[in-house]
């Protein structure tokens, strides 16, 4: 597999790197501490064209490939995974599904605004009783002719309060099980739609995660995405691509921690020499470097599969499973290499370690990725 980058991909990578250094780094610790949403930073991401990277320019997007998106996710995540998850949800879980399966009217009304970053989107599948077991949807969307009446609770929703457009998965016909589920576009401010309090999280504390409550919310039928009963397949297809974005986020977190640890190991002295001269530290760096490169190859391969029109369920799941494991292990070792300094906020690695954990949980836990992978290789 040749992963040599085109000139355009290199430019995107550099633009993301510069943005992360100049716009994200200066206040990343304060935002994490205060759980402050990166409002201005996200606005600038929109101006850069990073909130609808793969969307056709006729709908306000940048018309780039998945590999460019992955490169940008990787660079941003080295510095600030809170901002990168906001970008990831908007690109992979909202724009992609709307462009792939939305009607022309839905694309003109919603996609154009979301792809430019004028408004943000959210993707609402998880519920208190339906996380990994996503077919067990309790939220109902009852058919009333020209509209649905939506009732239920979604939880853990990224961009929960900052979004204006929500893609909500709900059960219309319980008898039909997962084939009776629909995906509906719900606007913020709809009567009966409430946003719960913000979650106080271990990591990605700058992103806003909320429960959403729907009490008899009227949703026009024209806001359904795809045919009646397509909602679960819609969610699965959307998540297959979303997992590539989160894999890139995990890769970036790992690479960011490694770069900090490498630099620190060449500056910090113990027993009369730089700690990188102690083989125990040098070997940690060797493992980190090797595992990050292996993760990178899996992530780029999944992106290539998507760009080449190949099936990416398996490669995306493998990339997410492996890159998230590498993110967790690398960040723990980066803290170790920093010694006591690793345990305080100023050196960034403790935040990267806290942020790494979520990549093994959201968009399908590592156990769920193993279900997807094992089913694929056994079928
Ligand atoms: N593409 C298309 N269709 C798919 C599919 C895919 N990748 N995967 C499954 N399906 C279809 C199946 O074909 C089946 O439909 P038919 O019966 O019509 O053929 C239907 O979906 C049900 O599939 P399964 O029988 O495999 O369902 P299951 O109950 O065994 O569950 C699962 C499968 C993979 C475990 C799934 O429930 C799952 O992915 N769970 C994890 C949920 C998840 O990832 N949530 C993330 C929420 S979003 C988020 O987290 C965002 C964020 O943090 C930022
Ligand atoms: P559970 O499904 O209860 O799982 C608990 C444990 O059991 C896990 O270790 C799991 O792997 C394991 N387990 C479950 N079933 C099996 C099985 N069959 N075999 C083996 N092990 C199993 N969701 C959205 O819809 N939209 C969002 O924007 C979103 N953002 C999120 C942001 C954050 C910060 C968080 C924490 C979550 C977010 N989620 C979102 C929800 C996330 O996708 C779920 O938390 C995740 O899918 C796991 O579901 P659960 O929390 O209910 O755990």
From TrEMBL:
Cofactor(s) listed in the protein's UniProt record: FAD
PROSITE patterns attached to this UniProt entry: ACYL_COA_DH_1, ACYL_COA_DH_2
Domain Acyl-CoA oxidase/dehydrogenase middle as annotated: residue spans: 122-217
InterPro entries reported for this sequence: Acyl-CoA_DH_CS, Acyl-CoA_Oxase/DH_mid-dom, Acyl-CoA_Oxase/DH_mid-dom_sf, AcylCo_DH-like_C, AcylCo_DH/oxidase_C, AcylCoA_DH/ox_N, AcylCoA_DH/ox_N_sf, AcylCoA_DH/oxidase_NM_dom_sf
Coiled-coil segments on the chain, per record: none
Domain Acyl-CoA dehydrogenase/oxidase C-terminal positions: 231-378
Domain Acyl-CoA dehydrogenase/oxidase N-terminal as annotated: residue spans: 6-118
Record key words, sorted: FAD, Flavoprotein, Oxidoreductase
Family, as annotated: Belongs to the acyl-CoA dehydrogenase family.
Protein name: Acyl-CoA dehydrogenase
């Amino acid at each position: 597999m040749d992963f040599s980058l085109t000139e355009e991909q290199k430019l995107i990578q550099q633009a993301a790197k510069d943005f992360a250094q100049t716009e994200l780094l200066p206040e990343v610790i304060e935002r994490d501490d205060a759980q402050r949403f990166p409002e201005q930073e996200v606005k600038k991401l929109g101006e850069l064209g990073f909130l609808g990277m793969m969307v056709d320019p006729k709908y306000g997007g940048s018309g780039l490939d998945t590999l460019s998106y992955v490169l940008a996710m990787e660079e941003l995540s080295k510095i600030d995974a809170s901002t990168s998850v906001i970008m990831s949800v908007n690109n992979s879980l909202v724009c992609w599904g709307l462009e792939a399966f939305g009607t022309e009217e839905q694309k003109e009304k919603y996609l154009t605004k979301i792809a430019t970053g004028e408004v943000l989107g959210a993707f609402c599948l998880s519920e208190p009783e339906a996380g990994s077991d996503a077919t067990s949807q309790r939220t109902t969307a009852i058919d009333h002719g020209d509209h649905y009446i939506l009732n239920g609770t979604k939880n853990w929703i990224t961009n929960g309060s900052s979004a204006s457009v929500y893609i909500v998965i709900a059960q219309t016909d319980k008898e039909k099980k997962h084939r009776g589920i629909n995906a509906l576009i719900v606007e913020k401010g709809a009567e009966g739609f409430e946003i719960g309090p913000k979650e106080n999280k271990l990591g990605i504390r700058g992103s806003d995660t909320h429960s959403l409550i729907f009490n008899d919310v009227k949703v026009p039928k024209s806001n359904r995405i795809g045919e009646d009963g397509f909602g679960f397949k819609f969610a699965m297809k959307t998540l297959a691509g979303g997992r590539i974005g989160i894999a890139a986020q995990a890769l970036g977190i790992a690479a960011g921690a490694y770069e900090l640890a490498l630099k620190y190991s060449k500056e910090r002295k113990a027993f009369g020499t730089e700690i990188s001269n102690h083989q125990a530290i040098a070997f940690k760096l060797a493992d980190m470097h090797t595992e990050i490169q292996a993760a990178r190859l899996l992530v780029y391969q999944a992106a290539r599969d998507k760009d080449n029109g190949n099936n990416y369920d398996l490669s995306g799941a493998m990339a997410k499973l492996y890159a998230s494991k590498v993110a967790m292990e690398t960040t723990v070792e980066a803290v170790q290499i920093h010694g006591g300094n690793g345990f305080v906020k100023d050196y960034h690695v403790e935040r990267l370690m806290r942020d790494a954990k979520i990549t093994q949980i959201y968009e399908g836990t590592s156990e769920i990725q193993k279900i997807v992978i094992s089913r694929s290789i056994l079928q």
